[in-house]
Structure formats: C-alpha cells, structure tokens
Amino acid sequence: MKKIQALILSLIGFFAVSYAQPPFMSPEYAKEFCDLWNKTEDLTEGLADWAKNIKQGKEYRSIAFYRSDCGGPEKAVEVHIVNKDGKAICIYGGKAVDPNPDFLMYTTTEKWKELANGEFGFMGMGIMTKMTFKGSKMEAMRNMGPFKAFLLNLGKVPHTDQCP
C-alpha cells in the first residue's frame, strides 16, 4: 500500500511540475517572457530608441518567433514593445496576432536552445545562420547587444520542451 501511495504522490508531483511550466514558445511562455523582458535592462534601456520607430498605423513594435519542428507560423508567439518613459517596455506576450511583425524568427528547438545558451558563433555573426530571420537585418545588427539579451532570455523562462 505504501508503494502505491508513493507512486501516486510521485506522479502528482511530476504532473504538478509539468503543468506549472509552460511549453517552450507557447502563449503562456511568451507572457512570462514579456514579464522577463521588462526586468532586463539590456532590453528596456538598450532598445528604447528602437521602440520609438513604430511603423505607420501601428501602436507597437512586434517580434514573432516559433519552433519550426513544432509547426509553422500558426504556432508563432510574439511580444509587443512600446517606448514608455524612455524605455522599451513589453506590453503583450502571447499568441502571434500581428500579421506583419517587425521581426519574425524561426528555427528548430535544438537551434533555439543553442542560441538561448549563448552559442552565437564568431562575434555573434552566427546568429543569423542558426535561424530564419525576416525583418531588417541592418536594424538587428545595430542592436546586436540587446538582440543577444533577447536570445539569452529565451532560456531563462522555466518551460518544458513539449510542443505547444
């Protein structure tokens, strides 16, 4: 009887931990990523000017991303960034809703994990070879420091590796 109780408690613990952590790049993960963005000075300070450059007809900058081995663009999540009080503040993290994001990035889970671990390649130039990147590469290169902080933050949000 004690073995059965221990097994049941073990299974409850396993499911509680799995449930508490969202799948990597799920809408719930993106919300937590947005919260982390606002606590990361390299992003809030480093992208303050970038956040001011909003396309006509929009109220925010958007970055969409997804894991290509878990589906296509329909599985993308995104963050919306505004300049508020001189800082780049994330106001939304969740399912991708912007049909024309400023940046769209996707690659496999394995490559995302490498980037989130800081495996950028020589002088960070390898970042673009590890993913498909749509948007202004010049703008991304001008903001390489904050872009690296963005990638490193991907690994800092607790998550499971299950597909969203």
How are the SSEs ordered, and which strands pair?
Layout: H1 2-20, H2 27-37, H3 41-44, H4 48-52, E1 61-67, E2 77-84, E3 87-95, E4 103-107, H5 109-116, H6 127-130, E5 132-134, H7 137-142, H8 144-154
Parallel strand pairs: 1-4
Antiparallel strand pairs: 1-2, 2-3, 4-5
Helix pairs in contact: 5-8
pLDDT below 50 for ≥5 consecutive residues: which ranges? none
Question: What does the largest sheet look like?
Answer: 5 strands, mixed
Q: Could you state the CATH homologous superfamily?
A: SCP2 sterol-binding domain
Q: Which structural class do you get from the secondary structure elements?
A: alpha+beta
- Can you list the strand order of the major beta sheet? 3-2-1-4-5
Q: Helices and strands, in N-to-C order?
A: HHHHEEEEHHEHH
Helix content: 40-55%
| Arithmetic mean pLDDT | 89
Query: What is the 3D form?
Result: globular
Annotation field: number of helices? 8
CATH fold assignment = Nonspecific Lipid-transfer Protein, Chain A
What is the total tally of β strands?
A: 5
The assigned CATH architecture is 2-Layer Sandwich
In the CATH scheme, the class would be Alpha Beta
Cα separation of the termini: 37 Å
Radius of gyration: 18 Å
When the domains are counted, the total is: 1
What does this structure look like?
- The chain is an alpha+beta fold.
- It has a single domain (22-154), classed as Nonspecific Lipid-transfer Protein, Chain A (2-Layer Sandwich), CATH 3.30.1050.10.
- The chain has helices at residues 2-20, 27-37, 41-44, 48-52, 109-116, 127-130, 137-142, 144-154; strands at residues 61-67, 77-84, 87-95, 103-107, 132-134.
- α5 packs across α8.
- It is globular, with a radius of gyration of 18 Å.
